[in-house]
Amino acid sequence: MIIIAPFAQKLRTGALNPKNYPLTYWKQLVEMIDEPIIQVGVEGEEQLVDNFVKNMSLPRLREMLQECRTWIGVDSFFQHLAWDEGKQGIVLWGPSDPLIFGHHENINLLKDRSHLVPNQFIWWEATPHSNDRFVEPQIVLEHLRK
Amino acid sequence: MSKVLCSVATRGRYHTTLPLVLNAIINQTKPVDRLIIFDDNDEPQDMRKEMIYSYFFQMLDLKAIKWEWRYAGKKGQHHIHQQANDIAVNEGYEWVWRCDDDAIPEPNVLRSLYLHALSNVGAIGGAVLTPPNIFENVNSTGKIDHIDSEPNIQWSPIPMVREVEHLHCTFLYRAGVHNFNTGLSRVAHREETLFTYGLHQKGYKVLAVPNATTWHMKNPQGGIRSETNAELYTHDEQIFRNYLACRDKTIVVLNCGMGDHIVFSHILPQLKDPMVFTCYPDIIPGKSIGEAKQLFGDIDNWSIYKWMAHRKWTDSLEDAFRGMYL
After folding, report:
1. From CA B103, how far away is CA A6, in angstroms rounded?
2. Which of the residues A65, A100, A108, A124 would you substitute to probe the B interface, choosing the one with the greatest number of B C-beta atoms within 10 Å?
3. What is the pLDDT of residues A97-130, one digit of tens each?
4. Quick one: CA torsion of B118, B156, B165, B81, rounded to 10 degrees?
5. Smallest Cα distance from A107 to chain B, Å
6. Where are the domains of chain A?
7. Complex ipTM value
8. 0.95 cut: is pTM over it?
């Protein structure tokens, strides 16, 4: 079983969080994965697979992490929680820097450092979302199958 | 050689001590690299029309000293000095010389202070003497524990370099290490003490040094603290006392995201006697952020993101927490 945590925290402006992996890419990716997938997240997020569990408690999320083979997420609290649990996964990076906010134990997929925003410490509301910043689903799949 | 930004906060002293202060700054034997005058007057004027000021501005230009006259927000001098602190960090000034608008430095003051601006030093101040009152032979220690029982060490002649824990006014400080407490009221009572003691708590030396005398021409007219509301002083004094009461603890304020809390949890066991304020008590148990604000006024000094931004941080978040708290 694979867990996906597709979305970073919603922005106060309502705009798309620039750290979110593009929705079209997520849809392609889940189509290509031939293992059971559980999506975790919160109410109001788009459902990408049949099994979407919302608003889970931290202890339950930790249990699920122990039960899964691996996980795929973005730069959100989930990647830190999984690191805390010692469960390796794949993090899909865009404008934020994995050398600062990531954990080397994970597979950190960053398309190119030129896509990082120059100031990593401002509110993300100031950064527009761009699909161009992210690796394509095929690359994620290759790492998932390794 | 690292650059020095000089900031002067002024209110109500256009035609009394401010011209003396500016003249003294312009004629330092070690010139400042930039001068910013923060005008906090209720009715600010365009001083380019005043002959003396016009000459000052021309002298600054001839000496190739960048200068700027900024109209401040009337929120108190702690906000002004924090603005100077931020400008220094963002524009590459390692040191800030904060000057008051009624304290006239002798020509050698900046040179003498700067002599001690070493990598382990956070702030340096000289004597600030107020005629006719000079405290002779008081032998102040400059320790925070003695703050209620001894005059500030800067109020007397300083015969030799002394390591202290706080300074009172007109000092040179390292930019970007510590923030002025903008949670204080507009009278900003104790702001200099809290700021310099904060540098001391972060492991930087705070020095009182000789041969750097500033003359404080105390003037009942104007002044950045002309506010007399006793409640504001009481508010600020309480914040100061709260800091003192917690000084032996490691105060941790986690005003950040869930993920940041999880990363911080790996640092927590290494902290000495932590007192934790948290957004997510289910991840890191502790008191609320609201309580931290109530106790300490401003909690920006514990913002891990500001801390990283000031340092143009490129290492991991975990190492940033380590650098901030260990």
Report:
1. 59
2. A100
3. 999 999 999 999 999 999 999 999 988 998 999 9
4. -70
5. 16
6. 2-145
7. 0.96
8. no
